[in-house]
Amino acid sequence: MPPAYDPGAVEEKWYGYWEENKFFHARVDPEKEPFCIVMPPPNVTGQLHMGHALDNTLQDILTRWRRMQGYNALWLPGTDHAGIATQAKVEEQLAKEGRSKYELGRDKFLERVWQWKEQYGGRITHQLRKLGSSCDWDRERFTMDRGCSQAVLEVFVRLYEKGLIYRDYYITNWCPKCHTTISDIEVEHLDKPGHFYFIKYPVKDSDEFLAIATTRPETMLGDVAVAVHPDDRRYAHLVGKTLILPVADREIPVIADEYVDPEFGTGAVKITPAHDPNDFEVGQRHSLPQLQVINRDAVMTEEAGRYRGLDRWECRRQLVKELDARGYLIKVDDHNHAVGHCYRCSTVIEPMLSKQWFVRMKPLAEPAIQAAKDGQVRFVPERFTKIYLNWMENIRDWCISRQLWWGHRIPVWYCADCGEVIVTKTPPDKCVKCGGTGLEQDPDVLDTWFSSGLWPFSTLGWPDKTVELAHYYPTSVLVTGRDIIFFWVARMIFSGLAFMDQVPFREVFIHGLVLDALGRKMSKSLGNGVDPIDVIESHGADSLRFMLVTGNTPGNDLRFHFERLDGARNFANKIWNASRFTIMNLSDFTPGPEPRGEVLTLADRWIRSRFQEVAEEVTRNLDRYELGEAARILYEFTWNEFCDWYIELAKPRLYGRDRDDRYTAQYILADTLRGTLELLHPFMPFITEDIWQRLPHRGQTVMKAPWPVPVEEYRDIPAEEQMDVLMEIIRAVRHIRSEMNVPPGKKADIVLLVIDNGTRSLVEKWVGYVETLTAGRVTIVPSLAEAPEQAAHAVTRAAEIYVPLKGLIDIDRESARLAKEVSVLDRDLAKIRGKLSNEGFLSKAPEDVVEKERAKEAELSGKKKAIEDRLKMLGR
RNA sequence: GGGUGCAUAGCUCAGGGGGAGAGCACUACCUUGACACGGUAGGGGUCGUAGGUUCAAAUCCUACUGCACCCA
User: Fold this and answer.
1) Which residue is nearest to nucleotide B25 (CA to C1')?
2) pLDDT, tens digit, for every residue of A714-726?
3) Angstrom distance, A741 CA to B28 C1'
4) What ipTM goes with this model?
5) Domains of chain A with bracketed CATH
6) Secondary structure of A201-233 as H, E, C letters
């Protein structure tokens, strides 16, 4: 084995081995308890980013862990057709050829997109493999494959038949660049510095003016009224009067509506139903006309009169100038406000009137609210329940039609002859009403999230009644980022309830975002993204995974620091070398009978006992989704206990002449290491497999090794306490050596004064530990007639330590060191004695806490006395 | 405007009612036959501020300040 771990070769080798042997494949087995995760499908033509890396690492850890625990574990992968993003990419490609999708026509264009999908669709799944994802590739799905498309048709038709899908002329968010409507949650509100324009609207046949305030003056060309609050005394006399709209010179009414906030602006609001969602609703309440002054390219329409043909921003500039020149502009204030942007292209959204398809949300949301409230679906961390509920309870109808070509085409046909609307899964050849053949399918496609909302059951075979669906639905847990709770999680929940009568997953494990080192979101425009594939190539997939999962708590964001990545790589290397040591010393080892009883050394009993606790703690933390905590426990056990102590103490036994003792050491070493690798496997699948295969083992792969379960019989509290005693002595001696600048190579004489007989026999039995780990020669005595003057001194719970250092001791320095110890002890003692003299503490604190304080007091005061005696002896 | 999270060592972050933790960085020593991607020892924090609950608060509660995010 090479002295440093080289992930490159190892990773490819083992992933191939796993995949070829179908270890990821889950067969339905009614005898075994199912565990199922459906992968949040990444964009089929996208590439892996850190968010994916985190999300899939977490899923893989859970899946590998449950699989080892014996569950029938299925992690179902797949990709998403990502309507806008994919279509935009292909359009870009066409543009480079100097062509447009219109030139090609719909069918040819779609052929191109499918070609693109074939070409790039494998990229991200290939990258997921590099990460080590143990998903069942035999069951890989795509939101536009036949099954998923069938599910989409089924759902659309059923919802339509239930009256939950309708088509309406409505105001929606229009992206002038993507040329499609987008849903409310696809709009990103960004605070932008802007202006608040105060404009006078003259009252007809009067000298009076009504002042309004707006952030979008260009929309005034489409104003059809001005609204004030019904209780607003300032304007009560104007309600019902007519205003003359400046510039346009149209007459518009003053109306009263509760929607108006009298405190905001002037308390009078211009109403533009065609270009503002709130105004739209006001307009409906008051039966106002809808005047469209901005078109789909965000250019002013004919209705804008002189301003027609101008871009919306240019129109604003010129119009404000005119208002000012003609005396209508009162003032312009600076004003920061949230402006809606397209989440895909960041263009400012234009609220636009158009005919669209909607899902009626209220009836669907109700059971979805109930499900979260009574725990059918549980969020981890819990606080996300509130965020989910808040959104669900205030939900608005969902606009599902998109003016795109790439996606699930809406299964609706219109009869040219009689106008009949036909909603059906199979394309009709004639009108069901008039028999006419002039049928035309709705040109729009469905929102991508419409199909991904069905993902947990469409991928398991729905609408067919498959065995997979019966076995794995509801799935166990959904793992996803907190940024798509609304987009996706919510939609899966109400869809699942609507079509499966059960929640799609019992738990939702939410994680944060991966930020850059400065705490900024990683984004293409900032160029601050770190490519997981680069990281895997430089540091290995295991290091990336370990780094992503540690030092982080569920739901919180995580900053990406290369230093932490180095730390994870160093840990992998530490594992590698501990294993290298073990394997090098196992050449003549074949596992035979388990060593029992007296042949076990204290260190053997200790490490084995500690391992049981670690197995228990790791499992407990995985159970509560504290993956970072589980990883931390393994890190500390491996490094600080197994490597730093157990391996060091095993060395003399491995090199010694006692064959039985060597065998015992080999046995415990191999056993503990193998167990540790098994616990580490879900986190670091590659390195653990590579080493596990080199150790004595049973089975084809660590992936299918049984998850370590704590063995009560191996728990050994006395051994742990005794090891503590010895470790404390060893640390104290090392401390002295270091303080006194004793060269590491030099053997030092050590005198241990151990008064208690039981403790003394313990220390006598395992004195070798002290000698090995301190490079010392130890003498143990029950009493000291005369303590050596030329010696450094320390006190532990069990022993007083003297390290004679003839000629090396500076009495002044040693005294000063001891005096400092005393002052530290005094400080601690004062705190403890304060507690112990507190009546309330003694009567109200639990007994074991009081007892602990008493014991501590005794220990520290004993220690203090010993040091003071020593100081006295040194003549201070 | 409403909501959520965060504030702990120089940096990044765990922890969470009874002795302040880790990694990195820092200091000193060490090329010891697993590992310098290493070892040993060490320095460093009134746990954001102010109240409250409690025998006991970094931890629970309230308010405030600052930062981040979400929603309107």
Assistant:
1) A563
2) 999 999 999 999 9
3) 9
4) 0.95
5) 7-154+451-539 (3.40.50.620), 180-351 (3.90.740.10), 560-715 (1.10.730.10), 719-873 (no CATH)
6) EEECCCCCEEEEEECCHHHHHHCCEEEECCCCC
